[in-house]
S-acyl fatty acid synthase thioesterase, medium chain
Amino acid sequence: CVVFMGFFLGMEKLVACLYQRPNALCRLICFPWAGGGTSQLAQWGKLFSSSIEVSSVRLPGRESRLKEPFAKDMTTVVNEITSVLLKELQEKPFAFFGHSFGSYISFAVALHLKEKYGLEPIHLFVSGAHAPHSEAFLPIKSIPIYDAEDEDILTYIQILGGTPSELLQNEDIKKHLILTFREDLRVLQTFSFEKAERNIPFSCDITCFDGSEDKPHDLEAWHDLTSGDISFYKLPGGHFYLLEPSNEIFLTKHITRCIENAGL
C-alpha cells in the first residue's frame, strides 16, 4: 500500500482536480501560464459535463508546493509530470490544454509520452503560443532573465495582463509572482524542439486558440506537427482572453465538442 500512497501523494502534489469524476470517459489535463498556479483552470471542472474530468498541473515553487525548489529545466518538469501521470494516462483517453508557457509544457509532455510510451492525447488544445519549432519562438529564448530587474519583469507581467492589480499591491505576493515568473521563463528557455525533416510527431487533432488583441503567434507552423486535423480560433481579448467568462464558455463548449466527437 506504500506504493499506492506514494502515487496518491504524488498526484495530490502535482495535480489539482476539484471536481473528481471517476466515471468520466476522458481526462482533460490543463497546463497554466508562466507564474500561474492551478486556481483558474482547475475551476473549469464545473463547466464540463460528467464525461470529462478536468485537472490542472501544479509546478514546484507555488501554492501547496511553495517550499519546494523551482524546476531547473524543461526535462525535469516533463519527467515529473510523466512519471506521476503515466498510470492515469494509460487507463483512459486524455486531452491536453495549455496556455502560453503551459502550451509549451503540454507539447513537451505529449512528445515525451509519444516517443517513450507510444501514448498520445486524443486532442491537443494550445492557446497563446507559437509552434515550438517556429522562428517566432526564438526571441523568447533570448529574453535576458538573469540580468532583468524585478521592475522590468513586473512591467512585462503587467503588459501581459491576467494578474489582478490588487495582488500586485501586496509586496510579498508581488515579490513571489516576479520570482515564479522569472523561474518559469528560465525553464521555457531550456526547451528546444528541432523538427526532423520527415518526422511528424503527432497524429491527434490540434486546436489553436489566440486572443485577437494579443501579439500574433505563429500558429500556421503547428500544421507541421500532426497528421491530424488542425483548427484555429481567435477570441476577443488580449493575452489573457481566456479569463473572460464569455470566452471561457466558448472554450469549454468547444473543447467538450472536440472530445465527444473523438468517438470515445
